[in-house]
């Protein structure tokens, strides 16, 4: 056998690995998974039926152009077909955006801490991450992000609401920021949790993109629509960007099951958004209970809460796991806990209360 091994791109050295939320432990007395910001509700019967019907022809390739889904999205959001692009989850679309805009020597700006895929997909593209710390209130520091723009900047992520803190940026500050970004730098408004927002001051990215050719909106079917396992997300952007996304897409990346389920979900939107409403009510209940116990909880507009625990992070995660709730720790920083079924939320709140008393 040769001593040599295939030469790999140096940019891959040290790429952080994406840590998926831990699954709930098997065989325990109770086991709830609040570690991946998933939708706790099972698929709607009508959506499931349509996906199952599509499964009957999975010997065939899917419709590469996602025609049915694209038409549905175009009607639903009032955007031309040429401004739409789909991908394998919004993280897939985010990766396509990087492939389309950035490479070695270029810079990508995003807040930190934010969605953990940003550093990974940036490094894989060969570009350099420029991480701008969140403010003391766990919010994007848009002034500092604008100050960080250089001639090398190609793309900026604004995660609104931010994962993992749940915090948002408001219309006036976002517009002021966008006005400062040069037209040849792409701003990606990652709105994976858009449907959970109840703060009227948070702008809908789709309104902002309309007269701003350098703004791209990322959305997903994984969260509010409950299709995380099927991998389908989409971008809304002006034509050159959307066209570049179609060029960088993995051919046939979005399965027919995913396409059909996404169409069925858009047609069952009232019911799905009703479920989102229940989760939002649960969110308020969890936040109020935690604050009542004495925790500092940043205002969240997503389907999760953030507790900055610092050095106590892993102990807290272990206590939750022991109680039967799996959450997402970021060692040395804090924990992100998804809003799930009522019993899971109760168990988490109860564990948090005990932890606070004992620490
Ligand atoms: C901010 C943000 N963007 C994008 C995604 C990716 O979601 P998906 O690829 O399932 O659409 C996530 C998932 O957790 C997220 O938190």
UniProtKB/TrEMBL annotation:
It comes from Streptomyces triticagri. Belongs to the class-II pyridoxal-phosphate-dependent aminotransferase family. This is Aromatic amino acid aminotransferase. PANTHER family: HISTIDINOL-PHOSPHATE AMINOTRANSFERASE, HISTIDINOL-PHOSPHATE AMINOTRANSFERASE 2. InterPro entries: Aminotrans_II_pyridoxalP_BS (IPR001917), Aminotransferase_I/II_large (IPR004839), ArAT (IPR024892), HisP_aminotrans (IPR005861), HistidinolP_aminotransfase (IPR050106), PyrdxlP-dep_Trfase (IPR015424), PyrdxlP-dep_Trfase_major (IPR015421), PyrdxlP-dep_Trfase_small (IPR015422). It is an enzyme of class 2 (transferase). Its cofactor is pyridoxal 5'-phosphate. Keywords: Aminotransferase, Pyridoxal phosphate, Transferase. The modification N6-(pyridoxal phosphate)lysine is found at residue 223. Homodimer. GO terms for biological process: L-histidine biosynthetic process. Aminotransferase that catalyzes the conversion of aromatic amino acids and 2-oxoglutarate into corresponding aromatic oxo acids and L-glutamate. Residues 1-24 are annotated as: Disordered. Residues 1-12 have a biased composition (Basic and acidic residues). GO terms for molecular function: aromatic-amino-acid transaminase activity; histidinol-phosphate transaminase activity; pyridoxal phosphate binding. The lineage of its organism: Bacteria, Bacillati, Actinomycetota, Actinomycetes, Kitasatosporales. Its EC number is 2.6.1.57. Residues 33-345 form the Aminotransferase class I/classII large domain. CDD domains: AAT_like. It catalyses: an aromatic L-alpha-amino acid + 2-oxoglutarate = an aromatic oxo-acid + L-glutamate.
């Amino acid at each position: 056998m040769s001593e040599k091994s295939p030469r790999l791109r140096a940019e891959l050295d040290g790429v952080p690995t994406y840590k998926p939320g831990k699954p709930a432990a098997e065989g325990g007395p109770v086991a709830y998974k609040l570690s991946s910001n998933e939708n706790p509700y099972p698929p709607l019967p009508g959506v499931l039926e349509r996906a199952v019907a599509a499964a009957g022809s999975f010997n065939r390739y899917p419709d590469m152009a996602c025609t049915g889904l694209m038409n549905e999205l175009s009607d639903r959001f009032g955007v031309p077909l040429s401004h739409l692009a789909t991908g394998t989850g919004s993280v897939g679309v985010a990766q396509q955006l990087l492939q389309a805009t950035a490479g070695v020597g270029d810079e990508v700006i995003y807040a930190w801490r934010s969605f953990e895929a940003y550093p990974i997909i940036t490094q894989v593209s060969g570009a350099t991450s420029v991480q701008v710390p969140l403010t003391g209130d766990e919010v994007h520091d848009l002034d500092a992000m604008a100050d960080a723009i250089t001639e090398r900047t190609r793309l900026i992520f604004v995660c609104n609401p931010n994962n993992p803190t749940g915090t948002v940026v408001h219309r006036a500050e976002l517009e002021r920021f966008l006005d400062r970004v040069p037209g040849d730098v792409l701003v990606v408004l990652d709105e994976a949790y858009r449907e959970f927002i109840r703060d009227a001051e948070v702008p809908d990215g789709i309104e902002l993109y309309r007269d701003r050719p350098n703004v791209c909106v990322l959305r997903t079917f994984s969260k509010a629509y409950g299709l995380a396992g099927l991998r389908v997300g989409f971008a809304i952007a002006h034509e050159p960007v959307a066209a570049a996304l179609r060029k960088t897409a993995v051919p046939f990346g979005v399965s027919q099951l995913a396409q059909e389920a996404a169409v069925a979900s858009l047609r069952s939107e009232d019911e799905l958004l009703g479920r989102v409403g229940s989760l939002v009510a649960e969110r308020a209940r969890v936040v109020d209970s935690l604050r009542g116990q004495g925790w500092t909880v940043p205002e969240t507009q997503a389907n999760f809460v953030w507790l900055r625990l610092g050095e106590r992070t892993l102990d807290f995660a272990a206590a939750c796991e022991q109680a039967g709730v799996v959450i997402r720790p970021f060692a040395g920083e804090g924990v992100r806990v998804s809003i799930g079924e009522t019993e899971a939320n109760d168990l988490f709140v109860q564990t948090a209360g005990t932890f606070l008393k004992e620490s």
